[in-house]
Design goal:
Layout lengths: L1 H30 L13 E7 L3 H10 L10 E7 L1 H9 L6 E3 L3 H9 L3 E11 L1 E6 L19 E3 L5 H14 L8 H6 L2 E4 L3 H9 L5 E5 L11 E5 L8 E8 L5 H12 L1 H9 L3 E2 L2
Helix pairs in contact: 2-9, 3-4
Length: 282
């Protein structure tokens, strides 16, 4: 009888231990989440480093993009400036989700520095024109007049895209017999200041602080046009500027950044760029 009772008690104890073990195990599973945690939503803001010649067009896009499907509530914050300066800022750790350059040189350097995610894409083109103050007191009538002694010309440093394009155009003119040998050097000898970006070149000419400057066709905006005269640069001398756009590796909103790139290259973005005198993608 005693032996039987001992066996019953032992069985009961084992059962209790088993139950406790199952309870502890169950508690451990309950305390540990095996489910995949929900992904953190992307920030609803993009910071963009954008070439200054795109100021008006991208400002308009800043209002239009949030109206697109899937982009409701997205805020775009722009930092406009010379492409070379923006690329340097990106290299130094400036926060940005998207980099937009006015030439492939600065974008290629950003790619080599490992700053971009994926391959940048050209999204628009531009061409050069000469702008003069409306009064045109210096009497500039032709491209050859840019070499007149004493003329005050403004441009940008060569590492700024428009400054590089300007020098390329002048070199093409200098190689043409109608302008005479050394036209490029004679024009550059007239440069009285090198501005930080193309918008500052436009401002100098508008204010009459310079007699001429080479800028993009898109810089002759409806606001600027009444205050300047324009001399076209024929295609054989002109340099077509290609603008690439890329998503940075540091972005915390990669899907939204890529959606913006698609928007810029799509019908809505291209329509805005065309409206601002850029040459849209074919």
């Amino acid at each position: 009888m005693l032996g039987r009772r001992r066996r019953v008690l032992m069985a009961a104890g084992i059962g209790m231990l088993t139950a406790c073990g199952e309870s502890a195990s169950t508690g451990s599973v309950a305390g540990r989440s095996d489910a995949t945690p929900a992904s953190t939503p992307e920030p609803r803001e993009l910071v963009l480093l954008v070439a200054s010649s795109l100021t008006d067009a991208f400002t308009e896009m800043g209002d239009d993009f949030p109206r697109q499907a899937g982009a409701a509530g997205v805020k775009l914050t722009f930092n406009f400036g010379a492409s070379s300066l923006l690329r340097t800022q990106l290299e130094q750790g400036a926060p940005a989700d998207v980099f937009v350059s006015a030439d492939t040189i600065q974008m290629d350097q950003a790619v080599k520095a490992g700053l971009l995610d994926g391959t940048p894409q050209v999204f628009v083109r531009n061409r050069l024109v000469v702008v003069l103050p409306r009064e045109n007191r210096a009497g500039v009538l032709t491209l050859a007049d840019l070499a007149k002694p004493g003329l005050k010309v403004v441009t940008t440093p060569r590492d700024v895209p428009v400054g590089n394009y300007t020098r390329q155009a002048l070199e093409k003119m200098a190689a043409d017999g109608q302008f005479g040998v050394g036209l490029d050097q004679r024009v550059l000898a007239n440069v009285v200041s090198e501005e930080a970006n193309v918008r500052q070149v436009v401002t100098k000419v508008q204010l009459g602080e310079a007699d001429a400057g080479v800028v993009y066709a898109s810089d002759v905006t409806p606001r600027v046009a009444p205050e300047v005269r324009v001399i076209d640069i024929p295609d054989r001398f002109n340099t077509v500027a290609e603008y690439p756009i890329g998503v940075t590796k540091q972005t915390k909103a990669p899907a939204t950044a890529r959606r913006f790139v698609e928007y810029v290259r799509g019908p809505a973005g291209q329509a805005i760029l065309k409206k601002h005198n850029f040459i849209p993608l074919a």
